[in-house]
Design brief:
7-stranded mixed β-sheet; globular; alpha/beta; about 475 residues
């Protein structure tokens, strides 16, 4: 058996996977987020340990035999969080999370500092880890002086599990301290935030062993004494392993609250000015390109709430036949946009509204607008040298045939919807544990899922959608000026 832990923002999911990669058991434990001031988002790291322990307790009661057969544990987690520990490994302050924007001024300063974009291959976003430590140094110097280690969230769980300070390359690439091309910490980038190499964990591949579980935990839950803990990965990289996205040309599109196109690449080719993330992948000697839009199903759910309906009912009412775009355009910038604009202040809207527009027309325009935002992301990926032929669709929005047909047409890509299954970080984490324990080849052990249905571009409609996308792209500068 192999155990996967996914530390999310709103909860922790733990799965037990058999050697033939079937989910044997699964449990979820909730987490809460503290927002003491506008733009702040924090969590108590101790709550992660308590939630994981509660999950282990539940599994020990319901699946004791499976727990005893666990050979390896893998980790997945929310990225970018600053978990700051003192000399006794106690947090000096709550963890500053990925969606905390208090360090926007520090992020802008670091982004303008020579070396950051060049070495990390990325814009320094306020959500990344380095600007948070710069903020601590400037605003909480008495706490900053106590910091002896900085860990990412999942790696604090690893410390509890093994007693080791270790992180993996995929997660560490989102700190703004990693030389992403060389896959090593940069002393110069650390020094720019008042830190040095002693503050950083050791680095490992996602599918390497990083230690064995502590004796105290073995005795408490009945684990075997030689259970290893794999390097693990950031949440999107773990989901890539869950969907078999391993080598160049493999990619998934996630239609979740936010939208992500994640493409594995076999060489380091950053293009930070496009706001494409270039991170290390969870397989050795591979990297990834990620295009991120901030509101995918989030925008659809906003509209559904506005008209007093359920999102699934709105998309179902569209039928199966792809309809040509009308005059109405929707811009899904409800809270800013990431790729390609890196614009926190842009806001969304409808333009081109007319008397005949009804709920069905506006539902289509919402889906079209989100899909055009994804096309912006595809174009940014192509500018960075990544060309894709097909995408595996995951996330809640992938249940809509109409939306996947629309995406296939607008993006000019084959979109494949997998047979129902678990494609999240916990399953990917368990897979990484399996690879680490068996010392296997990820490309052989982490296969793509079987495909339930494939969607192809509607050639008869492509020209009309291309013209509508041109209007969409041209309107951005006008929206920005407003």
């Amino acid at each position: 058996m192999y155990l996967g832990i996914d530390l999310g923002t709103s909860g922790i999911k733990v799965v037990i996977m058999s050697e033939d990669q079937q989910i044997i058991a699964s449990t979820n434990q909730s987490l809460s987020v503290s927002r003491p001031f506008s733009g702040w988002s924090e969590q108590d790291p101790q709550s992660w340990i308590l939630a994981t322990a509660a999950a282990f307790d539940e599994l020990a009661i319901n699946q004791p035999d499976a727990l005893k057969q666990v050979k390896a544990i893998g980790l997945s987690g929310q990225m970018h969080g600053a978990t700051m520990l003192d000399e006794t490994d106690n947090p000096v302050a709550p963890c500053i999370l990925w969606n905390d924007t208090r360090s926007h001024a520090e992020a802008a300063r670091l982004d303008a500092t020579p070396g950051f974009r060049e070495l990390t291959g990325n814009i320094v976003f306020p959500g990344f880890t380095a600007p948070k430590l710069a903020w601590m140094q400037a605003n909480k110097p008495e706490l900053f002086e106590k910091i002896r280690k900085v860990l990412l969230p999942k790696d604090y769980l690893r410390l509890w599990l093994t007693g080791e300070y270790v992180s993996d390359y995929s997660d560490s690439a989102g700190t703004s301290w990693l030389d992403v091309g060389k896959r090593q910490w940069s002393p110069d980038l650390l020094a720019a935030t008042g830190l040095d190499l002693s503050h950083m964990p050791a680095l490992a591949e996602s599918t390497d062993s990083t230690g064995t579980i502590r004796k105290e935990l073995v005795e408490r839950w009945g684990f075997a004494a030689d259970v290893i803990v794999a390097g693990g990965a950031g949440d999107n990289a773990a989901s890539a392993i869950a969907t078999g996205i391993v080598g160049e040309g493999d990619a998934f599109i996630s239609l979740g609250t936010s939208g992500v196109i994640y493409a594995a690449i076999d060489s380091y080719r950053p293009l930070p000015q496009s706001a494409v993330h270039t991170f290390c992948h969870s397989t050795a000697n591979h990297w990834c390109h990620m295009a991120v839009i901030l509101a995918a199903t989030d925008a659809l759910n906003w509209y559904a709430n506005l008209v007093g309906s359920k999102a699934a009912d709105l998309t179902k009412a569209l039928g199966d036949e792809l309809t040509a775009p009308g005059s109405t355009l929707f811009f899904p910038y409800l809270g800013g946009e990431r790729t390609p604009h890196n614009d926190a202040s842009i806001r969304g809207g409808f333009i081109g509204l007319s008397h005949p527009d009804d709920r069905v027309v506006l539902t289509r325009s919402v889906l079209e607008g989100i899909s055009y935002a994804f096309k912006d992301g595809i174009k940014a990926l192509e500018a960075a040298g990544t060309s894709l032929d097909r995408l595996i669709a995951v996330g809640g929005g992938s249940s809509s045939d109409y939306w996947l047909s629309l995406l296939a047409t607008i993006l000019d890509k084959q979109i494949d919807r997998p047979t129902a299954g678990d494609f999240g970080g916990a399953f990917g984490a368990a897979r990484m544990g399996l690879v680490a324990e068996q010392k296997g080849d990820p490309s052989l052990l982490c296969k793509m899922p079987s495909i339930e249905k494939s969607f192809y571009p509607n050639k008869a409609r492509q020209d009309s959608f291309e013209k509508a996308y041109a209007r969409y792209a041209a309107a951005y500068s006008s929206l920005k000026e407003l």
